[in-house]
């Protein structure tokens, strides 16, 4: 199971967020392909705030999986934390999580 590998790699637990061992990123791709167009790190958002606009998979309570950003509500919520304008008509956006080395 992929989640078990993630748990082991990231020392799974609530303290993971508090120690900032993960970083959250928004990455966007062209709609007509898989080419990465850009990325921006999210700083200052808590897991609780993210859960207000995303519904985590039951097996992913700390949101390590990749989550699509598809609604105006999600975009409007994220605006204060991103330095770019999110254009849902042109690009596909995803909330992603990276382990901090």
Defining key terms:
single chain, 101 residues, alpha+beta, four-stranded antiparallel β-sheet, 4 strands, 24% helix, 28% strand, globular, disordered N terminus
Spell out the blueprint of helices and strands.
Elements: H1 2-10, H2 15-18, E1 22-30, E2 36-42, H3 47-50, E3 67-69, H4 72-78, E4 91-99
Antiparallel strand pairs: 1-2, 1-4, 3-4
**Which percent band covers the strand fraction?**
25-35%
Strand order of the largest sheet: 2-1-4-3
Q: What would the principal axes of the Cα set say about the shape?
A: globular
User: H/E series, N to C?
Assistant: HHEEHEHE
- Show unreliable segments: 1-20
Radius of gyration: 14 Å
* Biggest sheet features: 4 strands, antiparallel
Give the termini distance in whole angstroms. 23 Å
Give the number of DSSP strands: 4
Summing up helix and strand content along with how strands pair, one would put the structural category as alpha+beta
Number of helices: 4
Overall pLDDT level? 83
């Amino acid at each position: 199971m992929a989640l078990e590998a993630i748990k082991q790699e990231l020392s799974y637990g609530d303290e993971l967020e508090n120690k900032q061992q993960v970083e959250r990123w928004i990455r966007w791709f062209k709609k007509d392909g898989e080419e990465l167009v850009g990325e921006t790190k999210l700083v200052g958002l808590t897991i609780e705030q993210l859960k207000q606009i995303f519904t985590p998979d039951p097996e992913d309570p700390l949101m390590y999986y990749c989550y699509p950003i598809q609604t105006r509500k999600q975009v409007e919520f994220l605006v204060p934390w991103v330095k770019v304008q999110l254009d849902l008509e042109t690009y596909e956006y995803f909330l992603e999580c990276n382990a901090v080395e």
